[in-house]
Amino acid sequence: MRETGERPAEDRGAAEGATPVIAQVTELSCASNSGEIAVPRGAPTPKGHPEPRVPQTLRQKDRGAQPAVAGFHLFLFPESPLLKRTPLFDTHVAAGARLVDFGGWEMPVNYGSQIEEHHAVRAAAGMFDVSHMCPVDVTGADARRFLALLLANNVDKLATPGKALYSAMLNEAGGCIDDLIVYFFTPERYRLVVNAGTADKDLAWMGAVVAARALEVAIQPRRDLAMIAVQGPRARELFWQVRPAARAATEGLGNFMAADLGELFVARTGYTGEDGFEVMVPAQDAARLWAELAAAGVKPAGLGARDTLRLEAGMNLYGNDMDEGVSPLDAGLGWTVDLKTPRDFIGRAALEKDGQRAAFIGLKMLDKGVLRGHQTVTTARGAGEITSGTFSPTLGFSIALARVPLGVAAGDTVQVDLRGKPVNALVVKPPFVRHGKPLI
Amino acid sequence: MNVPENLKYTTSHEWVRTEADGTVTVGITDFAQDALGDLVFVELPEAGRNLAAGESCAVVESVKAASDVYAPVAGEVIAVNDAVKDAPEQINGDAFAAWMWKMKPAGDLSSLMNAEAYRQNIAAQN
User: Is 0.95 topped by the overall pTM?
Assistant: First the structure.
């Protein structure tokens, strides 16, 4: 047996004559578990921001190298990725997690069976360590003006404290820098949550926008916080079982609403298509909260299940379904772009000039086999490509999202090149599953 | 990692059991199923097909990736295990019980590894 569909593991051997450790450490812009805040080199330092410090708790999972400088707990293989760890890393190891490199973070892909974890979320409750994602507090007199300019969706729609919306953040060409959720508290105080692999890039971009327009805004990445997503029909009930004091303030939260309770930030959001909460706590409280949720019956779930759940729910994954070269209009995100008011935002002009140039569709496999990213899709209108594909545990067959020529529509049959063989797939409108039931 | 003593192994992570009647039974190892993760599809060769040693003749597909499976020896396929086609997760549950196909071997098994050699082989991969 030889795997044909997976990227090779990174080589971890140390090379002769490698770059000295200290020179490499100063190139890094990642933050530690202990809450130190790091700022990308070259990015403008936001007002009130502490000086960047060299992270001390990074680990390279591996054998052999000696730290080059006494006092640093760093073991560095120059040509290998330096993997960051969340406050829950030891918990995952103790639970027998299979760990992988996800965007530079050493994360659990499963704790045994990703399919079992997927089913647990749809049937009852599962939880994900999403501490690799980055909360970013945006504060100041110009906070609202800044975000109205920065984001394709319109924060002016947010009037109730705690209300959130999902948005793309675009570059001047209308391409997606990231997708994120933004929570409103006051016109001078918002919280964003950005993706793990793009956090450094996002922070640099935001800082540059603030500086270029001389806005009175502070941008504070909150690496002192951990985040646990508790998801499933029983998720909220089990969360309240372990945090009864939070119930009164969070029971009334509607969808896409959050409560900032100081030591706990609770949002009724998620990436699974199920009900639930995404909970932020100080990093040092994460392991205890996780353990208590587990004891209450919430099943630990890894990135494997996270991917099958979000794809069933028709939710995009940045880096797969869209990236800096892709307009939100071509990634099924037109509904998140607010062009209804004459608001100026970065990328607007490009979107209005180019419009939608591709169709973004769902696919359902009619035969055995798994649709996967980058596979070629042949349609009556020409060729396209799968952007995300997987096996759907809830449906029992493979599903995918794909970018294809305009004019391809639900009900069409297309061919997908599966490892050299053409197979038929049916075009469907996502999402594929809602409330645990098939929609397609 | 489970590596039964009474089986032979290939470097591509197939196991081989010689039966009393001289036929061989083939599957993929515990190491292989662990690396692949949850299996969702299995393709098996047809009974009657003649295989060359090392010929790609089956596929196991997990959520994560698809993998080819190779004939450990030359010979004729005499039976396939339809049960694993219907329930691929059986291979994850017990890779050595969830056999994939049986063959009438044309050659000998001398090129295959014993359990100790296979254990060393997979240890070297970590």
Answer: no
